[in-house]
Write a structure and sequence with these properties.
Elements lengths: L1 E5 L6 H12 L2 E4 H11 L2 H12 L5 H15 L4 E4 L5 H12 L7 E6 L2 H9 L1 E3 L6 E3 L26 H15 L1 H8 L3 E5 L4 H17 L1
Parallel strand pairs: 1-3, 1-4, 2-3, 4-7
Antiparallel strand pairs: 5-6
Helix pairs in contact: 1-9, 2-3, 4-5, 6-7
The structure holds adenosine monophosphate (AMP).
Length: about 220
């Protein structure tokens, strides 16, 4: 399957995308993870992206497109979960172009939704593995050993952009630039709504059922 995952920051899209991709043998392609890695390595793209990410804005489309195009070279045919891309309608059209070049198209755009008053405390407790990008929550989805990634044994960290004032700016960016993609994909008959409330297992159950319906269509 070829899927994109949409949703406001903190709705759980990363957690769901990682698990769904792993269990279905799909590539998990997260532009946020790729950008954080570029920032850490100090590449030219990373140096440009750093201040924008720290302020909660969107990195220029061309930078992200290049990263996604490179990953899709290998992963487009096998199937993928795009996590955090596209973030605006220009990127959605870029993605359509990348896939059309290979005679492919998306199967669905999954919109994991959650209200803002649930999101803010969720993000405050969020921790992630700096090595593999796996996402945890101190209460809702803790690792087996406190503060340590189950997969890598690495100490978990809090993302600098999970600070409250940056979260508010990321929400603003989401509402303005990314939320219009819901209508964009609905018009194309690709939108699948999934309620992001409850535990990660509950959301995962809903996601599986919703995508099973898509597969049968
Ligand atoms: P995420 O991990 O998906 O929440 O992304 C973290 C940050 O990386 C975002 O707040 C943006 O600054 C940047 N970013 C991630 N994906 C994109 C994208 N598709 N387009 C532009 N900026 C992005």
């Amino acid at each position: 399957m070829r899927l994109v995952f949409l949703g406001p920051p903190g709705a759980g899209k990363g957690t769901q995308a990682v698990r769904f991709a792993r269990e279905r043998g799909l590539a998990h392609v997260s532009t946020g993870d790729m950008l954080r890695s570029a920032v850490e390595r100090g590449t030219p793209a990373g140096r440009k992206a750093k201040p924008i990410m720290e302020a909660g804005g969107l990195v220029p489309d061309e930078i992200v497109l290049e990263m996604v195009a490179e990953r899709l070279e290998t992963d487009a045919a096998k199937g993928f979960v795009l996590d955090g891309y596209p973030r605006n309608t220009k990127q959605a059209r870029d993605l359509e172009g990348l896939l059309a070049d290979r005679g492919l198209r998306l199967d669905a755009a999954v919109n994991i939704d959650l209200s803002e008053d649930v999101i803010i405390p969720r993000l405050a407790g969020r921790r992630s593995c700096p090595k593999c990008g796996r996402v945890y929550h101190v209460r809702a989805n803790p690792p087996a050993r406190e503060g340590i990634c189950d997969d890598e044994g690495t100490a978990l960290v809090q993302r600098p952009d999970d600070r409250e004032e940056v979260v508010r700016e990321r929400m603003r960016t989401y509402r303005e630039k990314t939320a219009p993609l819901i209508a964009y994909y609905r018009e194309r008959g690709l939108l699948v709504d999934v309620d992001g409330g409850g535990t990660p297992d509950e959301v995962y159950g809903r996601l599986g059922r919703a995508l099973e319906a898509v597969r049968k269509k």
